[in-house]
Design a protein that fits this description.
single chain, mainly alpha, 14 helices, 80% helix
C-alpha cells in the first residue's frame, strides 16, 4: 500500500470491524478474526501491507501493556491461594511439554539453544486467547476453567525468566561477547527497576493523582510502562519483562484499578493490531506446501 498513515489506519480499523464480529458470530473468537484479517492484508495475499515487520514492531507495545496488566493482577495473597494448581499442575504442563517438543527439535538437527527456545516457547499458550475463549463460553468459573486459568497464570510467570534467558542464550553463542558483562547488566537493570520502582512509583502516582487531571495520570501510566520496557531493552532483555515487573510493583497499590482502567483500552487496540501483524507475517503458501514438516 502506497498511501500514508491515515489510509493504513483506516484499513486496519475496517479489517477489525468486519472480521472480528463475523468470526465471533460463528463462535471462532476475536483473535482468529484478527489473524485471518492480517493474513489477507499481508504481502503474501492481497499485498495491502508490504512490510509487516514495521507494523509488528510498533504493535508489540500491546504485548508490553498486556504483561503490565498481568503484573497488576498478580498480588501475593492471590498467588498463595492458588499455589498448588499454579505451581503443581502448571509447572508439570510446561516442563513435560517443553521436554517433548525440545527433544523433537533436537531430532530435527537444531542446536541445544534453539531446541530449548522452541520447546519452551511452544509449551506456552496465549493467555489473551485462552481467557477470552473461556469468558465468551461462560466457562471461566467452572472447574476446568479455574484449572486452565491457573496453568495460564504459571505460563505467564514462566515466560518472564524465559524471555530474560533468550538474549543470554544468543550472547552465549557469540564467542566475541562478554557473557558475564551481559549478565551483570541484566541483573543491574532488574535491581534498579525493582528497588527504584518500589520506593518511587507510589510517590509519583500520589503527586499526579492530586493534580486531578485524568489525562496526566494516563500519560504517567504509559510513561511507567514504556519506560520500564525501554530500560530492560537497554540491558538486552525483553521489553515485556520490564512492564511485568512494573505491574507487580504496583499490584498492591491504591492506584491498581485506576491504572488497569487506563491501560486496558490501549492494550486491547494494540493487541488487535499485533495479532493482525502476526497474521501478515504468516507465509500461508509455505505452510500449504510443506504440511508434514509444519505438523
Amino acid at each position: 500500500m502506497h498511501g500514508g498513515g491515515l489510509e493504513l489506519a483506516l484499513v486496519f480499523l475496517l479489517a477489525a470491524v468486519v472480521a472480528v464480529p463475523v468470526f465471533k458470530r460463528f463462535g471462532l473468537g476475536a483473535v482468529l478474526g484478527y489473524l485471518v484479517a492480517g493474513v489477507l492484508l499481508g504481502p503474501h495475499e492481497l499485498k495491502v501491507v508490504a512490510d509487516p515487520e514495521r507494523v509488528l514492531a510498533a504493535s508489540e507495545i500491546g504485548v508490553v501493556m498486556m504483561l503490565f496488566v498481568i503484573g497488576l493482577e498478580l498480588s501475593l495473597p492471590r498467588l498463595k491461594l492458588m499455589k498448588r494448581p499454579i505451581f503443581g499442575t502448571g509447572g508439570l504442563q510446561v516442563l513435560l511439554t517443553a521436554v517433548v517438543l525440545g527433544g523433537l527439535a533436537l531430532l530435527q538437527g537444531l542446536g541445544w539453544q534453539a531446541a530449548f527456545v522452541v520447546g519452551a516457547g511452544l509449551a506456552l499458550s496465549s493467555t489473551a486467547v485462552g481467557l477470552q475463549l473461556l469468558t465468551e463460553r461462560k466457562e471461566l468459573n467452572s472447574d476446568h476453567g479455574r484449572l486452565a486459568f491457573a496453568i495460564l497464570l504459571f505460563q505467564d510467570l514462566a515466560a518472564i525468566p524465559l524471555l530474560a534467558a533468550i538474549p543470554l542464550l544468543a550472547h552465549a553463542t557469540d564467542t566475541g561477547s562478554n557473557t558475564w558483562l551481559v549478565v551483570a547488566k541484566a541483573v543491574g537493570a532488574i535491581a534498579a527497576l525493582v528497588f527504584g520502582g518500589r520506593f518511587l512509583l507510589r510517590y509519583v502516582f500520589g503527586i499526579i493523582a492530586r493534580t486531578g487531571m485524568p489525562e496526566v495520570f494516563t500519560a504517567t501510566a504509559l510513561l511507567v510502562v514504556l519506560g520500564s520496557a525501554w530500560l530492560m531493552q537497554l540491558a538486552g532483555l525483553s521489553a515485556g519483562l520490564g512492564a511485568f515487573l512494573a505491574g507487580v510493583l504496583l499490584a498492591e497499590s491504591e492506584y491498581r484499578h485506576e491504572l488497569e482502567a487506563q491501560i486496558k483500552p490501549f492494550e486491547g487496540l494494540l493487541l488487535g493490531l499485533f495479532f493482525m501483524a502476526v497474521g501478515m507475517s504468516a507465509y500461508v503458501q509455505r505452510i500449504a506446501a510443506e504440511p508434514p514438516l509444519i505438523v
